[in-house]
């Protein structure tokens, strides 16, 4: 693969938190990149000294230790405030980059000046096991995203066609200017950040995997996913990005209702009642959109016939 025409500097930030063994794997994978004009910066946000001790003899990286420890949103915002290179990536300490990750993404942005970010698919890492299963199974071809509802649909409808957050390469100018949006939403602050960034230009998502994305035991439980989606829906409405009776929101809520099991903690009455209230409200809105009802019935019939 040819080097990017302009050969700009790319800052590769690693968000580090109490996982020295995984961090060493990520560092080695970044040092093995085919694109060489990079700067590896470790934002060390651990609550113990094991990571600093492990980094003592590691060369070729810059370490910025966060004292006191920052919460997730503050940490991400702090990193974006310190970016200076024309391009940047914000990576997790427990993932592994494939050798051509940076090269591939920088060439995409280099040849598409209207785009502000590029990303790709990922293989799934199950704890220590490298699999060949794709994280975004629905991402089958190159995808250009230009509008926030198109990006929101991927998160709200569980279509499995969205790139992992640490797989994005950004034009730093735009990413740093919208960093305040990280504080807007709780657990889905990464999504609110991407939605705000999309207002600056298009995203390109590639179907080929360029990293291993680690899934830990018990990660991404259904109950947490449902709460996140509810939070994201309220933020999208508050920002006037989507209207309250937008078919996308109605469809997402009803699809979650059909597909989702009960919360693991059935005794949690507050959580269960909140979920019930959301879906009763959604049902009323859904019945006002008969074309969505027909779509749901059609999809169910197709699955029955295929089965």
Characterization of this structure:
- The protein is of the alpha/beta class and 307 residues long.
- It has 2 domains: 206 residues, Spore Coat Polysaccharide Biosynthesis Protein SpsA, Chain A (Alpha-Beta Complex); 64 residues, no CATH class.
- The protein is 42% helix and 21% strand.
- It contains 11 helices and 10 strands.
- Strands 1, 2, 3, 4, 5, 6, 7, 8, 9 and 10 form a 10-stranded mixed β-sheet that branches.
- α5 packs antiparallel against α7 and α9 packs across α10.
- The longest helix is centred in the last third of the chain and has 19 residues.
- It is globular.
- About 4% of the residues have low confidence.
Task: Please estimate the helix content.
Answer: 40-55%
Counting DSSP E segments of at least 2 residues, the number of strands comes to: 10
Estimate the strand proportion.
15-25%
The Cα radius of gyration reads 20 Å
Order of helices and strands: EHEHEHEEHEEEHEHHEHHHH
Describe what is shown at a glance:
The protein has helices at residues 20-31, 50-55, 72-81, 101-110, 148-156, 172-177, 189-198, 222-238, 247-259, 269-287, 290-306; strands at residues 10-16, 38-44, 62-65, 87-92, 96-97, 115-126, 129-134, 143-145, 169-171, 202-215.
Key features of this structure:
307 residues; 2 domains; Spore Coat Polysaccharide Biosynthesis Protein SpsA, Chain A; 10 strands; 21% strand
